[in-house]
Design a protein that fits this description.
3-stranded antiparallel β-sheet; 9 strands; 33% strand
């Protein structure tokens, strides 16, 4: 055997045939696990952000807004159905606002001063200007949804 061939046989193997056991080390598995957990949490956060956290059957989204002229209630119909016989009730006090319909995708904005109830003498009463609702309930022919302002959506 010529001397050149013997030295070629003793040369290190090319990179493609080397042992790859260092690629399956616990450190690499840990890094892959961290990336997988991050992807799952990121996907869940994005899904929560797009749904707004709302999970009520009516499809209502309710916000309490300070307009500078007083408090207003912003009610959105995020469902695909027409709401009929819409009643917005706020507590404390049982003040109401009624509207015949609210189309799918539409929004209803009501100043708290426009809410009313029938008082003890049969007169219409309105809340005081500094009124802050503690519970808001939306009732329609198709269902209802109740929430506390500032609380996380159910």
């Amino acid at each position: 055997m010529p001397a050149g061939r013997a030295s070629a046989a003793a040369a290190p193997a090319p990179p493609a045939t080397r042992d790859t056991s260092d690629r399956s080390s616990p450190y690499l598995k840990w890094r892959i696990g961290v990336v997988v957990v991050w992807l799952v949490l990121s996907t869940a956060a994005v899904a929560f952000a797009f749904t707004g956290g709302q999970s009520n059957d009516l499809g209502a989204v309710v916000n309490v807004v300070d307009t500078g002229f007083g408090i207003a209630l912003d009610v959105q119909n995020k469902s695909d159905a027409l709401w009929q016989n819409v009643t917005v009730t706020v507590a404390p006090g049982g003040y109401l606002y009624r509207q015949a319909t609210l189309r799918a995708g539409d929004r209803l904005s009501v100043q708290v001063a426009r809410l009313e109830r029938i008082g003890a003498k049969g007169r219409h009463e309105h809340p005081k200007p500094d009124f802050k609702p503690s519970r808001i309930t939306i009732r329609t022919s198709s269902g209802s949804y109740s929430m506390r302002p500032g609380a996380r959506p159910r």
